[in-house]
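wait is this the right file?? whatever heres the structure
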């Protein structure tokens, strides 16, 4: 039985099913490219368009940046393994990948909670919105939405990395904390309790926010329209992230040998594929309509300005010519 000091490399065995599909590297690269493009485009749009310098869109930019952070922790290594015959990862690299991937999931959840609170204040306490969402508070909310998950994941990694492992074979496409813990033939109850508490508290905060939002908004037609316009994109994003994380947790804890390896691989990577790709598209459609509408308004104002100028200047020129 190898001791902890002898295990310096892990082998990933989830790539057996990918050999059957020749287009897997190309599709993976395409997904990674699309994730980079849509997230960077949305971030640049928020930076360039001054009308989008509002708390909700600042949080959205942070969400997109986190999507890039998580994708960088998974796709380059995944592409490298797809093009290689040996699917190995060092011990340090394994724990770094665990840290990046799962801190990314927790940051996603935390930012969506902050966005839910922003919608709650904007709809349920509109007169206090500008007092609550001050610049320093926005910085505080952004800092907490990143620091708390990063500290949480640091604690999890520090506990897992101190275990004495009895094997080096990980049955996944990437390093995963529960898979490493199983190699030690033990269960870290404190880690499991900590992670469950983290997600459950966040879920309660979102539920509380939307309970009061819906109670406020669903009383009349105008309020319902306001709810659909301002909250539906965020609610869709939250449901996508929550469902993806739920499927991942169920797959990790209740892994079934009857399920095909291809299906298991898809479930394992779906939270690294759908949230960073779909969330920018959901908000991007809304921002595109907003920008197009504002540009049309600006164009019409410019056109009216030129029309007014020519209406005033042409008669004056004609009258001066007649005098001459």
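ok assuming it is, sequence goes like this
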């Amino acid at each position: 039985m190898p001791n902890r000091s002898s295990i310096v490399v892990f082998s990933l065995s989830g790539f057996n099913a990918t050999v059957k599909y020749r287009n897997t590297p190309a599709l993976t690269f395409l997904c990674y490219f699309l994730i980079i493009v849509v997230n960077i485009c949305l971030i640049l749009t928020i930076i360039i368009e001054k009308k989008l310098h509002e708390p909700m869109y600042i949080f959205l930019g942070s969400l997109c940046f986190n999507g890039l952070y998580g994708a960088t922790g998974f796709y380059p290594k995944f592409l490298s393994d797809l093009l290689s015959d040996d699917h190995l990862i060092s011990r340090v690299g394994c724990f770094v990948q665990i840290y990046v991937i799962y801190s990314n999931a927790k940051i996603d959840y935390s930012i969506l909670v902050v966005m839910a609170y922003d919608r709650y204040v904007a709809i349920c306490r509109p007169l206090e919105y500008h007092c609550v969402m001050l610049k320093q508070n926005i910085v505080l909310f952004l800092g907490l939405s990143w620091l708390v998950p990063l500290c949480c994941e640091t604690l999890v990694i520090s506990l897992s990395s101190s275990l004495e492992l009895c094997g080096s074979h990980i049955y996944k496409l990437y390093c995963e904390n529960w898979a490493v813990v199983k190699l030690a033939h033990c269960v870290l109850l404190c880690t499991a309790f900590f992670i469950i508490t983290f997600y459950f508290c966040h879920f309660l905060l979102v539920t509380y926010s939307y309970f009061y939002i819906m109670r406020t908004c669903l009383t009349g037609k105008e309020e319902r329209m306001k709810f659909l316009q301002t909250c539906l994109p965020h609610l869709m994003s939250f449901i996508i992230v929550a469902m993806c994380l739920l499927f991942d947790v169920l797959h990790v804890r209740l892994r079934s040998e009857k399920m095909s390896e291809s299906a298991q691989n898809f479930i394992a990577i779906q939270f690294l594929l759908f949230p960073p790709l779909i969330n920018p598209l959901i908000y991007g459609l809304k921002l595109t309509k907003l920008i197009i509408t504002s540009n049309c308004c600006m164009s019409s104002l410019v056109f009216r300005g030129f029309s007014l100028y020519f209406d005033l200047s042409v008669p004056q020129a004609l009258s001066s010519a007649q005098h001459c």
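The chain has one domain: 10-306. so i think its the right one actually
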